[in-house]
Write a structure and sequence with these properties.
Elements: E1 11-12, H1 13-20, H2 24-32, E2 39-41, E3 44-47, H3 49-67
Antiparallel strand pairs: 1-3, 2-3
Helix pairs in contact: 1-2
Length: 68
C-alpha cells in the first residue's frame, strides 16, 4: 500500500505570519494593504505559497536596491 503525501495548496494568515516570523497583526496589515496577495474563501483569507515567495522576493530586491 502506498501512502499519498498531500502538500499544502494555500495557507492561512496565521500560518504565513509564523512562516515569516511576523506577528499576526502585521501579517494581516500586509494582506489588507495588498503587499501580500490573498483570496477570500468564505470568511477566511488564504494565501498561495507563490504569493509568500513573491512578497519575500520583492522585499529583498527593495533592500538590495536601497543598500546598493
Amino acid at each position: 500500500m502506498t501512502t499519498a503525501v498531500i502538500t499544502r495548496k494555500w495557507y492561512s494568515t496565521a500560518e504565513v505570519a509564523e512562516m515569516l516570523g511576523f506577528g499576526l497583526s502585521k501579517t494581516k496589515m500586509l494582506v489588507l494593504t495588498g503587499e501580500i496577495r490573498s483570496v477570500k474563501v468564505g470568511r477566511n483569507r488564504r494565501i498561495l505559497p507563490e504569493w509568500v515567495d513573491e512578497y519575500i522576493g520583492r522585499v529583498t530586491a527593495e533592500s538590495w536596491a536601497v543598500s546598493a
